[in-house]
TrEMBL record:
PANTHER family: CELL DIVISION CONTROL PROTEIN 6 HOMOLOG, CELL DIVISION CONTROL PROTEIN 6-RELATED. This is ORC1-type DNA replication protein. Keywords: ATP-binding, DNA replication, Nucleotide-binding. It comes from the Archaea. Residues 37-178 form the AAA+ ATPase domain. NCBIfam families: orc1/cdc6 family replication initiation protein. Residues 268-340 form the Cdc6 C-terminal domain. It comes from Haloquadratum walsbyi (strain DSM 16790 / HBSQ001).
Length: 342
C-alpha cells in the first residue's frame, strides 16, 4: 500500500538539480568561493530553509583543485571527533580513537600544505555547545590560510561573536550569508516538484498540498509528512488524509531526528510530551524523566546532563524554551514542544 514510485526525491539527503528561491544565496556562496583565497563563511537561517542543500550542491561543483570535507556536527560534536572525521576525509584512512588531539592536528596540517581544502561544519550549533571555539581557533590559525576555507552552517547562530573567543573571531572573520524562512507559496512549490518526481500521477490533491504548505515552513518536516502519507495509503492524498496522518507523521519525524542520539534523549523527549498543559519547568521535566527511566530500566542521568540534552532537543527544533530572570523563584526556564509539532 503506497503511492510512491521513486523514494529518493522525498528523502532529506536528496539534492535536487535546482533549489527553489535560493538563487541569490547560491550566487553569494559561489562568488565567495571563486576568490583567490578561500573564505570563511557563516551560512545561517532557520531549519528547513535549504542551507544544507545549498552547501551540498555547491561542493559538487567546486574546481578540481579544491578538496571538500563535510562534517555533520550532530555526530561529530567535539573538537576531537571533528578532527578525526576531518583526518579520515583527507587521508581516506580510518583514524584510530587513541590519537591525541595534538597528533591529529599535526597530521592534518601536513595534508593541507599543497592542495586547497574546503571544510563544511554542518549543524555547527552542536559543536559550539561543546566549546567548538577550540576547533575553530585551530583551523583559523593553520599556516597557509589561502589553502583552507570553512563554511559554518547554523540554524541558531546569526553571529559567531558571542559564541567564540574574540581572538578566534578576529582571525576567522566569516562572511555572513543568511536564508529566510520559506513562504507557504515557496513550500508549495518545493513539495509540488518533489511530489511530481516521486509519486504516482494524480495521487495528490491540490487542496492537500495547499494545506501541507500552510501547515509548516520547515520543508524537511513537510517532505517527511508527505512521504509518510503516501506510504500509508493507496488512495489519492486529500487534506483529510494529511490531517489523519499528522500525529503519526510528526512522531516518526521526531524518532528519525533522534535516531542517532541516546536512549536518554528519546526518554527525555517522551517525558516532555507526557504533560497536558504547557509551558513546564525543568524541575517538572526531570521528575517525569526519572519516572520514565524507572519504567524502562534506565539509570537516570544527572540534572546537569539532562540540561545539556534539553539544549540538544532545542537545537533540533523539537522544543521551545524561554528563560526568565529574577522574581521570587530566581532564574526559571519554561519549556514546551515546538509549535511545528503540535
Amino acid at each position: 500500500m503506497s503511492l510512491v514510485d521513486n523514494q529518493r526525491p522525498l528523502q532529506p539527503e536528496y539534492v535536487p538539480g535546482s533549489i527553489t528561491d535560493r538563487e541569490s544565496e547560491r550566487k553569494a556562496l559561489k562568488q565567495a568561493l571563486n576568490s583567490i583565497h578561500l573564505p570563511n563563511i557563516l551560512l545561517h537561517g532557520p531549519r528547513g530553509t535549504g542551507k544544507t542543500l545549498l552547501t551540498r550542491q555547491l561542493i559538487t561543483q567546486l574546481e578540481d583543485d579544491i578538496q571538500h570535507h563535510y562534517i555533520d556536527c550532530i555526530h561529530h560534536n567535539t573538537e576531537h571527533k571533528a578532527l578525526r572525521k576531518l583526518h579520515t576525509s583527507i587521508t581516506g584512512e580510518d583514524t584510530p580513537q587513541g590519537f591525541h588531539t595534538s597528533k591529529l592536528q599535526r597530521k592534518i596540517e601536513k595534508q593541507l600544505k599543497h592542495v586547497r581544502h574546503l571544510i563544511v561544519l554542518d549543524e555547527a550549533d552542536f559543536l559550539l555547545q561543546n566549546n567548538g571555539n577550540s576547533l575553530l581557533y585551530y583551523l583559523s590559525r593553520i599556516n597557509k590560510p589561502a589553502n583552507l576555507g570553512i563554511i559554518i552552517v547554523s540554524a541558531h547562530t546569526a553571529s559567531l561573536q558571542s559564541q567564540i573567543d574574540e581572538r578566534t573571531y578576529s582571525t576567522l572573520q566569516p562572511r555572513r550569508i543568511g536564508t529566510e524562512p520559506y513562504t507557504s507559496e515557496q513550500v508549495y512549490q518545493i513539495l509540488s516538484e518533489r511530489a511530481r518526481q516521486s509519486l504516482e500521477p494524480t495521487s495528490l490533491h491540490h487542496e492537500a498540498l495547499t494545506y501541507l504548505a500552510s501547515a509548516t515552513e520547515n520543508t524537511k518536516l513537510g517532505l517527511h509528512w508527505l512521504r509518510h502519507a503516501a506510504q500509508n495509503t493507496s488512495q489519492p492524498i486529500s487534506e483529510e488524509t494529511l490531517k489523519q496522518t499528522q500525529k503519526q507523521a510528526h512522531h516518526r519525524f521526531t524518532e528519525r531526528t533522534l535516531s542517532h542520539h541516546t536512549d536518554h534523549h528519546r526518554t527525555l523527549y517522551r517525558a516532555i510530551r507526557n504533560f497536558d498543559d504547557y509551558p513546564i519547568n525543568s524541575g517538572q521535566i526531570y521528575t517525569t524523566y526519572r519516572e520514565h527511566c524507572r519504567k524502562r530500566d534506565l539509570k537516570p542521568l544527572s540534572n546537569r546532563r539532562i540540561s545539556d540534552y534539553i539544549q540538544h532537543l532545542k537545537l533540533h527544533g523539537l522544543i521551545e524554551t524561554k528563560t526568565y530572570y529574577g522574581g521570587k523563584h530566581g532564574k526559571t526556564t519554561q519549556i514546551q514542544p515546538s509549535s511545528l509539532l503540535q
